[in-house]
Design goal:
Layout lengths: L6 E5 L4 H12 L3 E6 L2 H15 L3 E5 L7 H12 L7 E4 L14 H29 L2 E6 L12 H20 L5 E6 L8 H5 L13 H13 L6 E2 L3 H12 L2 H14 L1
Parallel strand pairs: 1-2, 1-4, 2-3, 4-5, 5-6, 6-7
The structure holds NADP nicotinamide-adenine-dinucleotide phosphate (NAP).
Family: Belongs to the short-chain dehydrogenases/reductases (SDR) family.
Keywords: Oxidoreductase
GO molecular function: oxidoreductase activity
Length: 264
């Protein structure tokens, strides 16, 4: 049965995975709240989705990299779409920083921690409460296969994604039986603007590279099923790698991760 939420809120909707999630949901007739900083990108996407699919789209231009992102977003939502709460929330906004930690720009590092960890948690807290109260809703937190193991050269980024993964898995258990669904989407390296933003010299991290379509279509297929798994790794090679990372002792996984990062 195709999952067709009445209203979906997607953060980081101005490019990459977030923009494609918005497209896929609009194709199904879902109204949207699209959140990011680049107004031109959001307006362009909103116009396209209204024209092609006749859905209502609310672009919300907001820098989520700040304290109180969750309440601020709910306030913006109340102003944009009074009386409506999202049935689906995709906590997708995030970025990474390549290079040894001691060479990372300190301000950019803090901005990443604030967005990937603090804002994501604040938004999760803010949207999950009304979902649990009404006994329905779906929350997707975008983690990464990087969250399954440490990655020298991308250390703080994958640590933020380990946080997202652990948080979401625990929440999956906390909301069990309430009618609310939670999952962590864990893409492997995917061809988006991520690598330009992260400052990768080679465009992609080692490992199996997926397209945004592979990732988002796997998510949508999972959303169509009644139950969601605690985490979802979209493609088979990355799934095998993630399971291996969970079962391998760290002293073995760490040198493997270091070798993969050196090749990237
Ligand atoms: N691509 C990969 O290989 C990969 C793999 C695993 C996980 N992921 C995760 O997937 C998610 C989406 O990334 P992507 O690959 O689609 O990369 P992307 O194309 O760079 O998209 C990132 C999105 O986040 C938004 N964003 C960044 N900083 C923000 C801020 N301070 N406030 C609000 N929005 C902000 C960006 O919009 P604005 O710049 O307009 O604000 C953009 O829409 C991220 O959480 C990333 O960590 C990506």
């Amino acid at each position: 049965m195709p999952y067709t939420p009445a209203l979906a809120l997607v953060t980081g909707a101005s490019s990459g995975l977030g923009a494609l999630v918005a497209r896929r949901m609009a194709e199904r007739g879902t109204d949207l709240v699209l959140v990011a900083r680049r107004r031109d990108r959001l307006d362009e996407l909103a116009g396209e989705l209204r024209r092609r699919h006749g859905v209502t789209v609310h672009p919300v231009v907001m820098d989520l990299g700040r304290a109180g992102a969750g309440p601020a977003l709910l306030e913006a939502l109340a102003a944009e779409a009074p009386g409506r709460s999202p049935d689906l929330v995709v906590n997708n906004a995030g970025f990474g920083i390549y290079g040894p930690l001691v060479e990372n720009d300190p301000e950019k590092l803090e901005a990443m921690l604030t967005l990937n960890v603090t804002a994501l948690t604040s938004i999760t807290r803010a949207v999950l409460e009304p979902m649990v109260r009404r006994g329905s809703g779906t929350l997707v937190n975008v983690a990464s296969t990087g969250g399954f193991q440490p990655a020298p050269g991308l250390a703080a980024y994958v640590a933020t994604k380990a946080y997202v993964l652990h948080l979401s898995e625990a929440l999956w258990q906390e909301v069990k039986g309430t009618g609310v669904r939670v999952t962590a989407l864990c893409p492997g390296p995917t061809s988006t603007e991520f690598f330009d933003v992260a400052g990768s010299e080679h465009g992609v991290l080692g490992g199996n590279v997926t397209t945004p379509e592979q990732v988002v279509d796997a998510l949508v297929a999972a959303l169509d099923r009644r139950r969601l798994p605690p985490y979802l790794v979209p493609d088979v090679p990355n799934r095998i790698q993630s399971v291996a990372a969970r079962v391998l002792p760290r002293r073995l996984a760490l040198p493997v991760a270091a070798r993969v990062m050196r090749q990237s």
